[in-house]
Write a structure and sequence with these properties.
Its cofactor is Zn(2+). Pfam families: dCMP_cyt_deam_1, RibD_C. This is Riboflavin biosynthesis protein RibD. There is one protein chain. This protein is α/β, with parallel strands linked by helices. The chain has two domains: 134 residues, Cytidine Deaminase, domain 2 (3-Layer(aba) Sandwich); 221 residues, Dihydrofolate Reductase, subunit A (3-Layer(aba) Sandwich), CATH 3.40.430.10. The protein is built from twelve helices and 14 strands. The strands form two sheets. A nine-stranded mixed beta sheet has the order 10-9-8-7-11-6-12-14-13. The protein has a five-stranded mixed beta sheet with strand order 2-1-3-4-5, with helices on both faces. The radius of gyration is 23 Å and the shape is elongated. The C terminus is likely disordered.
Length: 375
């Protein structure tokens, strides 16, 4: 690995430390190198906090003068919650900037690199670009479409069942796979399920990581008629994340009022029905700066999400169990497709082993890249 790739790899590792904490901003890492020595490093820890370049410059102090800055994303050049990083780099006396990729944000989009060049800095872009794009797949989708990046998570037996004929589903997968599932919850802004999951299981939908480190996702309930009980765990538990009930005009007004009184945010999603219009819902959630959603629904929600075309990535856990039975439910309901050419095709597929279980991840469009959490 050449020097630029080596230091960019360090910067990518720093950026990864803030996974799930920077929304709606990207994850960014920065490393400052002078005379073959790392003199400063940093990462963007959360939205509103100092950007990675500023943190690294502060870490380096006077040693930043004459250094090369390795940044996983093109330095910003506009005023937001913080000042432009291009200005900070120039003022600090950095002489060379190596960026992994240009910023897809229209406010930047090459302008940052152009400003640095104009100021006399040497600029290089595209080092470990694919890795940087995979790191920030959520940000790229959101900033270019204003819609959240959607991951469909499912856990099935070897023969494609999500429960037995009697409804027993705990637990199909083992401890390692379930722990990974909580890490997924910790990584995304929101988790989405259907009201039947609430009525049947009364789940908490929290991220339970060791030592209480998990960040709870916003809970989104698809509930056309506002049937969510006001005594459900998702409304009563202590959590920094709130609950959104996505419903329709068909929901009784008194039920909507009861849910709001219980602390839920009720979204009336326009549409002709039946059910909640998922594409319209994605637009509404994007307007709320919800950049990513993990679907943990049953077969009906999964089928609706795939049919609506809102799924970007699939995380499919497969347990080495055979359940059998015509009445045992599967993970995708609805009409399905008539021909194999209409089936949802996954690309850039990766396979991991988690204990005795298998995790298969893939993207629903070409060029989606591949990304998995470290085991």
């Amino acid at each position: 690995m050449d020097q630029d790739r080596h230091y960019m790899q360090l910067a990518l590792g720093l950026a990864e430390k803030a996974r799930g904490r920077t929304s709606p901003n990207p994850m960014v890492g920065a490393v400052l190198v002078k005379d073959g020595e790392v003199v400063g490093q940093g990462f963007h820890a959360k939205a509103g906090s100092a950007h990675a370049e500023v943190v690294a410059l502060a870490d380096a102090g006077e040693k930043a003068r004459g250094a090369t800055a390795y940044v996983t994303l093109e330095p910003c050049c506009h005023y937001g919650r913080t000042g432009p990083c291009t200005e900070a780099l120039i003022k600090a006396g950095v002489v060379r900037v190596v960026a992994a990729m240009t910023d897809p944000n229209p406010l930047v989009a090459g302008k940052g690199l152009a400003i640095l060049k104009k100021a006399g800095l040497e600029v290089k872009c595209g080092v470990l670009e694919e890795e940087a794009k995979r790191l920030n797949e959520v940000f790229i989708k959101y900033i270019t479409t204003k819609r959240p990046f959607v991951v469909l998570k499912a856990a099935t037996s070897l023969d494609g069942k999500i429960a037995t004929a009697t409804g027993e589903s705990k637990w199909i997968t083992g401890e390692a796979a379930r722990a990974y599932g909580h890490r997924l919850r910790d990584s995304y802004d929101a988790i989405m399920v259907g009201v039947n999951t609430i009525l049947t299981d009364d789940p908490s939908l929290t991220a339970r990581l060791p030592e209480g480190r998990g960040k709870d996702p916003i809970r989104i309930i698809l509930d056309s008629y506002a049937r969510t009980p006001t005594g459900a765990k998702i409304l009563l538990q202590e959590s920094a994340a709130h609950t959104i009930v996505a419903t329709t005009e068909a929901a009784p007004v008194e039920r909507r009022a009861s849910l709001m009184a219980a602390g839920a945010e009720v979204l009336i999603v326009p549409g002709t029905g039946p059910g909640v219009d998922l594409n319209k819902l994605m637009e509404m959630l994007g307007e709320k700066q919800i950049t990513s959603i993990l679907i943990e629904g049953g077969g009906k929600v999964n089928g609706s999400a795939l049919a609506a075309g809102i799924v970007d990535k699939v995380a499919w856990f497969i347990a080495p169990k055979i359940i059998g039975g015509d009445a045992a439910p599967g993970p995708v309901r609805g009409e399905g497709v008539a021909t194999l050419r209409d089936a949802t095709q996954l690309y850039d597929v990766e396979v991991q082993r988690l204990g005795e279980d298998i995790l298969l991840t893939g993207y629903t469009s070409k060029g989606g890249g591949s990304l998995s959490l470290p085991v």
